[in-house]
Amino acid sequence: AALRVAPRPRRVLDERDRRDEQVVRVAPGAVEPVDVGAAVGGVQLPAEVDGNNVGLAGALPPSLGELGSSLTYLDLNSNAITSVPTEIGALTGLKELDLFNNAITSVPTELGFLTGLTRLNLRHTDLTSVPTELGALTGLRILDLGYNAISSVPTELRALTSPGLVYLALN
What we know:
Strand order of the largest sheet: 2-1-5-7-9-10-11-12
Helix content: under 10%
Radius of gyration: 16 Å
Number of strands: 12
Largest sheet: 8 strands, mixed
Structural class: mainly beta
Oligomer: single chain
């Protein structure tokens, strides 16, 4: 089942809405726009996706990458997601990625392409390792890898200890 942009916007009032941000709510099998970002091929793409605790299960589809570089915020925490596609690397505009509390056992190396990330939350997943490519995310201010079974941390993550990193959680 692909993530798709619903044909008609549906207004969802939440805290981000009140701040006039561009947010979408996710339902299994659909992305329902509230406000939209860039247009590609006549389709309005969201700037933010809030899929917190909406019952998503299994592997995220490769079509996730089609949400494009205008996406800045992706929150899919507290679902039953088991894997993330390599196409996530196409979301180069992401600033915040939250996959907290899912059943993800590994993340693709393509996360290293998301060099604009300032916040990456992989807390309470089932990770046993992290790719060395995360060392390329030198703009991170928050990296949360807590409550996982990570046995070793790549030395490349030392690059993240710049003055900008204000929160780092490991196991």
